[in-house]
Amino acid sequence: MGVIHVAAAVVLLLGLYGLFLLAKPYRTCRWCKKGSFLARLAGRGRCWRCHGHKLTRRWGAWHVHKAKLSLRQAWDERGDD
Ligand SMILES: [Zn+2]
After folding, report:
1. pLDDT, tens digit, for every residue of 47-75?
2. Which among 26, 22, 35, 14 is positioned nearest to 71, based on CA atoms?
3. Most exposed among 35, 55, 56, 80, judged by the fewest C-beta atoms under 10 Å?
4. Which residues neighbour 47 within 8 Å (Cβ) at sequence distance 6 or greater?
5. 17 vs 31, residue with greater confidence
6. 30 CA distance to ligand 1 centroid (A)?
7. What's the Cα-to-Cα distance from 74 to each of 15, 18, 49, 78, 80, rounded to whole Å?
8. Residue 28: beta bridge partners?
9. SS3 call for 60
10. Cα gap 61→25, rounded to integer Å
């Protein structure tokens, strides 16, 4: 397996992960877990990570979200010519 194959596999996996993020951008907040030391540190009812929503974006979901927004903007701003 050559470098090209590895690169192609990585691009493919990133693409699949991007689609996955589009479908399910959120996951249960790991900082809210019962008995979590960090959750207790955050304390006071609200979690610093999810602000009490119990859901956080997956890693990379924010970038996928921004990419989607810019793609949509590009689509909206396409010329009529
Ligand atoms: Zn949380």
Report:
1. 777 887 888 888 899 999 999 999 999 99
2. 22
3. 80
4. 29, 31, 32, 39, 54
5. 17
6. 6
7. 20, 19, 32, 6, 13
8. 55
9. coil
10. 6
Token digits of residue 53 = 């929503």
Residue 45 CA to ligand 1 centre (angstroms): 10
Contact 17, 10 (CB under 8 A): no
The amino acid occupying position 6 is: V
Residue 25 contacts residue 56 (beta carbons within 8 Å): no
Angle of the 3-23 helix axis to the 61-76 helix axis, nearest 10: 80
Is residue 47 within 8 Å of 31, Cβ to Cβ?
yes
Distance CA 4, CA 75 (A): 31
Q: Is 21 helix (H, G, I), strand (E, B) or coil?
A: helix
Using alpha carbons, select from 38, 22, 30, 36 the residue that is nearest to residue 55.
Answer: 30
The one-letter amino acid code at 45 reads G
